[in-house]
UniProtKB/TrEMBL annotation:
Pfam families: Glyoxalase_6
SUPFAM superfamilies documented for this protein: Glyoxalase/Bleomycin resistance protein/Dihydroxybiphenyl dioxygenase (SSF54593)
InterPro entries: Glyas_Bleomycin-R_OHBP_Dase, Glyoxalase_6, VOC_core
Protein name: VOC family protein
All residue ranges annotated as the VOC domain in the record: 4-114
Length: 117
């Protein structure tokens, strides 16, 4: 039996706003939009995607699952995402080589350093 990874579900108070934020941040395309769901993918036929699903209650604690991204230039990418509306957060990580940010609804994600070649 084989499994195909379809998407990651992100609960959001405003799925359209948060989904659009992530689509712009990642340069992904919108493949589905309704009042309660907003799905984006790297390309229309490429998986996995991110699906933002309405959940009325706000985020209450540190996320148990988060995304890691590895850009070519960590400093430039952090600056770009901060200008796009992300914010730095401290989740108890201490001094590390990665930077922890949060999207507009408080979902944490990490920007890693460039991979050593």
């Amino acid at each position: 039996m084989a499994l195909e990874w379809e998407q990651v579900i992100v609960h959001a108070q405003d799925p359209q706003a948060l989904g659009k934020w992530w689509a712009e941040a990642l340069g992904w395309v919108v493949v589905h939009s309704s009042d309660d769901e907003f799905e984006i993918r790297p390309a229309p036929d490429r998986l996995p995607g991110l699906e933002f699903v309405r959940l009325a209650e706000p985020k209450k604690a540190k996320s148990r699952l988060h995304l890691d991204f590895r850009p070519d230039d960590q400093e430039a990418e952090v600056a770009r995402l901060l200008a796009h509306g992300a914010r730095r957060v401290d989740i108890g990580q201490g001094e590390q080589s990665w930077v922890v940010l949060a999207d507009p609804e408080g979902n944490e994600f990490c920007i890693l350093r460039r991979r050593s070649r």
